[in-house]
Design a protein that fits this description.
about 150 residues, alpha+beta, 3-stranded mixed beta sheet, 3-stranded antiparallel beta sheet, 5 helices, 6 strands, elongated, binds zinc ion
Amino acid sequence: MRQEEVVAKIKSEYKNISLEPADNYYWSPSENKVFYVLNNNSIEAVWALLHEVGHALLDHTKYFSDIELVKIEVEAWNKAEELASDLDIEIDEDHIQDCLDSYRDWLHKRSLCPDCDLSGVQVNTKTYVCIFCHKRWSVTSERFCRPYRLQNK
Ligand SMILES: [Zn+2]
Ligand SMILES: [Zn+2]
């Protein structure tokens, strides 16, 4: 099934979800919109789209700590798999694990102190503190999904 068909199906079945073309796949709780890349005909595109729709359907609207974010990602993939089976699409399990791994890597990297490279402590959704040198640094909490490897190429 092509992405355009999936977009059309989601639009007709879930009228409260708005889908809008953008330069990447993500769910924006503040705008209440799922963004997707037009004219992307790979199967991974459909999987990414379903994943973001999963976030929207699960109403992932509040901010979470980095530890909770991994759980949220897993939930969105579970929802994506439900949607996929309704559409008779199969999401590759290795792809999901790859996405979760790259997500964990990204979370790990942003938890490292820019000065001493040791793991910091998250004090709120946007801030980490290093317990060794007491440096504070900010992390974005705007997007649930950082661009996955596939979209980075
Ligand atoms: Zn430090
Ligand atoms: Zn996600």
